[in-house]
Amino acid sequence: MRTSYRIGTIKEIEINLHISLLMILPFFVAIFMFNNPPLGFSEISNTFLKVGLSVLATVTLFISILVHELAHSLTGMRYGVKVKNITLLLFGGVSMLEEIPREPSQEIHIAIVGPVTSFAISGVFYLSYLISTPWMFSSYFYSMAFLNLILAVFNLIPAFPLDGGRILRGYFAKHISYVAATRKAAGVGKLLAIFMGLIGIFYSFWLILIAFFIYIGANEEEKLVYIEGLLKNVKVKDIMTSEVVSVHPDITIKEFLDLMLVKKHMGYPVVDKGELQGIITFEDLRSLPPEKYTTVKVKDVMKRDIISVSPDEPAYKSFKLMNENRIGRVLVIDNGKLEGIVSKTDILRTLSVLELEGALDAE
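Predicted structure:
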């Protein structure tokens, strides 16, 4: 099932709308309709105008979030960072930068430009409010000025995955290693999340949700950088499985399942006459009715878009690709030739050994 829908492209950056946002849009319209200023337009007696302003405010809010994320992405591109896409989600937007620069000043610049942009948008709306008062749209301008101000301030909270957490890490990284800076910044974020959660118990359920979001984000960032640190000196070729079991595109799904029972792997490259055609996994069969297992062939359900790495790339890249694409394995290809396969099991096994070696070295 698709979870995101492409709505356009800006500066070669794909803009996606997550299904969660589509589902929640009526809820945001309702919030604007029934809340008092600056969070809504409940004081407006004209129902048609109230609904119109609420819809306009909802759309404007997410356009503001998109501009905030575009500021991050375009600044990252100036530093040579590849931007995969921007996805607008239930709780805001996410810029999928391929890799955050390890240069502290660059990370700080990329992170801080988002809140600065939101402050600027807030200023423009506030000036519009001052000029337009007492026009019927003045309450709309005031609401947008307030919400963009909140967006800017909220993102400056020094905790991952917010911009403030990345700014804090950039500051720490000027004095200590990147891994240590991440651990320190994540620790600050976790403490803030715990404090916010405790306050939320007495005052607001939403504050508890935000605290949970911040704690998980800080924990994930710390874990990812820790794993990257362990794998930084390991190459893909050091952990890949070279003896790859492949399948032919013309075998039936029944024959493929029989092979899976014997070989016990959950994914296989599809090869015909030495040429890589695609990859098929157990997940690709979930939507296929059992009565079609004897007639449908591997080539009918396999994925042709192959996610791969080269043997000499860092092992961390394969781990990152699996996480980003929610897959369990990546193929290893060198000069168009299939050289091996790396699975999550290979990654986890390597991490376990490296952690044990690290523990032994520390003794």
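Summary: The chain has twelve helices and nine strands.
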